[in-house]
Amino acid sequence: MSTTDEAVIIQFYQAFQRLDAEAMMACYTDDVVFSDPAFGTLLGSDAADMWRMLTARAKGLSLTFDQVQAANGEGAAHWVATYPFTQTGRTVVNSVRARFVLRDGRICEHHDHFDLWRWARQALGMPGLLLGWSPLVKNKVRRQALKALRAYQAGRVGQP
Question: Looking at residue 143, what is its pLDDT?
Answer without folding.
Answer: 83
